[in-house]
């Protein structure tokens, strides 16, 4: 029940419009810390899971959830180390992952992200699929260092590599690998335990989600800890099952698309039926996920 409750919480916040998110009682959100190894921890609260790396050179955060949670996030980080937050690496541009950027930048952190993250944060978005309007971000929230493909950080004795994956959850996703600690943060290319949200209007695609998982799999051993964008901490088995589900639904929808079936006909065929009991309990319901996959495969 704890796993399912967490899944519902984080997907509910992600799918909400900014107005609905602002209506939340942030005082009731608890930021919890799961210490992993090698100085790496995972923070959960509301929004995307945060990665924390503590080194003698300072702290690197992977994502930072919503602005109202910054004090609680800072308190959780301070409980791990008295070092300052030097770097914030955004896995993509959505507000539940970059909402704390402005606050942390004003504290002295340097915000880093893939090129398209800054572009989309600067422009904002009107999403028809999610009925959500995201205004342009404040200047201080924008990444000040951006990169095209990959970037490497050297903190203490750890090597942290961020790899851009094309057109997955969005067009600005990065996967973060802590090499020595053997921990990977996948951002929203991995939703652990429920159907993923794919932001097609931000350049995402179902094929890109599968390709992102395929890129990671050679790095994942039996003892690798995998931080998802949403949901509980994962491992190799969880990632294998997730990949099988996404690819399985995609392939069934693709076969129906090739037969010139309409969206309504594809939904009626229930291509997610074998997966719904396990994966269909979050905010992304089966019919909506099928619609995303269908739209991704039929996009011109």
Describe the structure.
About 45% of the residues are buried. Helix 7 (about 205-215) links the parallel strand 13 (about 185) and strand 14. The chain has a single domain, classed as Metallo-beta-lactamase, Chain A (4-Layer Sandwich). It is an alpha/beta fold. The chain contains eleven helices and 14 strands. The strands form three sheets. A seven-stranded mixed sheet has the order 1-2-3-4-5-6-9. A five-stranded mixed sheet has the order 10-11-12-13-14, with no helix packed on it.
Offer a quick outline of the entry.
It is built from eleven helices and 14 strands.
Keywords:
single chain, 300 residues, Metallo-beta-lactamase, Chain A, seven-stranded mixed β-sheet, 14 strands
Which SSEs are present, and which pair or pack?
Elements: H1 2-15, H2 18-22, E1 32-37, E2 40-44, E3 50-55, E4 58-62, H3 70-80, E5 85-89, H4 95-98, H5 101-106, E6 110-114, H6 115-123, E7 125-127, E8 132-134, E9 145-147, E10 150-155, E11 158-164, E12 174-178, E13 183-185, H7 206-216, E14 225-227, H8 236-258, H9 263-268, H10 276-279, H11 286-298
Q: Give the quaternary arrangement of the chains.
A: single chain
Described by strand count, sense and barrel closure, the largest sheet is: 7 strands, mixed
**Can you give the helix content as a percent range?**
25-40%
Terminal Cα separation, in Å? 41 Å
Write the CATH homologous superfamily.
Answer: Ribonuclease Z/Hydroxyacylglutathione hydrolase-like
CATH class: Alpha Beta
Query: How large is the radius of gyration?
Result: 18 Å
| DSSP strand tally | 14
CATH topology: Metallo-beta-lactamase, Chain A
Strand content: 15-25%
Low-confidence parts: 1-19
Please give the CATH architecture.
4-Layer Sandwich
Morphology call: globular
Instruction: Give helix and strand order, one letter per element, not per position.
Output: HHEEEEHEHHEHEEEEEEEHEHHHH
């Amino acid at each position: 029940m704890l796993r399912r409750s967490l899944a519902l919480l984080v997907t509910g916040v992600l799918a909400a419009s900014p107005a609905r998110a602002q209506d939340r009682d942030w005082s009731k959100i608890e930021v919890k810390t799961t210490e992993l190894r090698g100085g790496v921890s995972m923070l959960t609260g509301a929004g995307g899971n945060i990665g924390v790396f503590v080194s003698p050179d300072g702290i690197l955060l992977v994502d930072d959830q919503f602005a109202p949670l910054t004090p609680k996030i800072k308190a959780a980080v301070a409980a791990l180390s008295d070092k300052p937050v030097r770097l914030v690496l955004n896995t993509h541009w959505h507000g539940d992952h970059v909402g704390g950027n402005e606050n942390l930048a004003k504290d002295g952190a340097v915000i880093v992200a893939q090129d398209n993250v800054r572009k989309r944060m600067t422009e904002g978005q009107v999403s028809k699929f999610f009925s959500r309007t995201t205004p342009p971000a404040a200047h201080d929230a924008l990444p000040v260092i951006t990169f095209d493909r990959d970037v490497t950080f050297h903190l203490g004795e750890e090597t942290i590599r961020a790899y851009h994956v094309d057109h997955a959850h969005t067009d600005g996703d990065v996967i973060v690998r802590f090499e020595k600690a053997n921990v990977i943060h996948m951002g929203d290319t991995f939703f652990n335990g429920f159907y993923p949200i794919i932001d097609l209007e931000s350049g995402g695609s179902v094929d890109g989600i599968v390709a992102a998982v395929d890129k990671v799999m050679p790095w994942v051993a039996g003892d690798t800890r995998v931080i998802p964008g949403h949901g509980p901490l994962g491992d190799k088995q969880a990632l294998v099952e997730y990949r099988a589900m996404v690819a399985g639904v995609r392939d069934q929808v693709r076969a129906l698309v090739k037969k010139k079936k309409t969206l309504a006909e594809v939904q009626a065929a229930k291509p997610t039926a074998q997966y719904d009991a396990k994966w269909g309990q979050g905010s992304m319901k089966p019919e909506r996920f099928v619609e995303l996959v269908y739209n991704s495969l039929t996009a011109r």
